[in-house]
């Protein structure tokens, strides 16, 4: 998994949190819900990144790479 993808997914999570906070502060329930959804999508992407990294670590352990 590329470092750029990981940074992008982390930025998406922060944007979701910000959108959620703005929605909460302004009483905009739709914006708040959209922020929660964006954050959840980013969390799923980050979980996928971690799973892929773990798979690569296992593969590297069997092939003798560091």
From TrEMBL:
<dbReference type="InterPro" id="IPR036629">
    <property type="entry name" value="YjbJ_sf"/>
</dbReference>
<feature type="compositionally biased region" description="Basic and acidic residues">
    <location>
        <begin position="1"/>
        <end position="16"/>
    </location>
</feature>
<dbReference type="Pfam" id="PF05532">
    <property type="entry name" value="CsbD"/>
</dbReference>
<feature type="domain" description="CsbD-like">
    <location>
        <begin position="5"/>
        <end position="55"/>
    </location>
</feature>
<feature type="compositionally biased region" description="Basic and acidic residues">
    <location>
        <begin position="33"/>
        <end position="66"/>
    </location>
</feature>
<dbReference type="InterPro" id="IPR008462">
    <property type="entry name" value="CsbD"/>
</dbReference>
<feature type="region of interest" description="Disordered">
    <location>
        <begin position="1"/>
        <end position="66"/>
    </location>
</feature>
<protein>
    <submittedName>
        <fullName>CsbD family protein</fullName>
    </submittedName>
</protein>
<comment type="similarity">
    <text>Belongs to the UPF0337 (CsbD) family.</text>
</comment>
């Amino acid at each position: 998994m590329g470092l750029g993808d990981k940074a992008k997914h982390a930025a998406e999570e922060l944007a979701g949190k910000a959108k959620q906070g703005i929605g909460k502060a302004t009483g905009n329930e739709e914006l708040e819900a959209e922020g929660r959804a964006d954050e959840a999508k980013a969390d799923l992407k980050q979980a996928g990144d971690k799973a892929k990294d773990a798979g690569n670590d296992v593969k590297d352990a069997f092939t003798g790479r560091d």
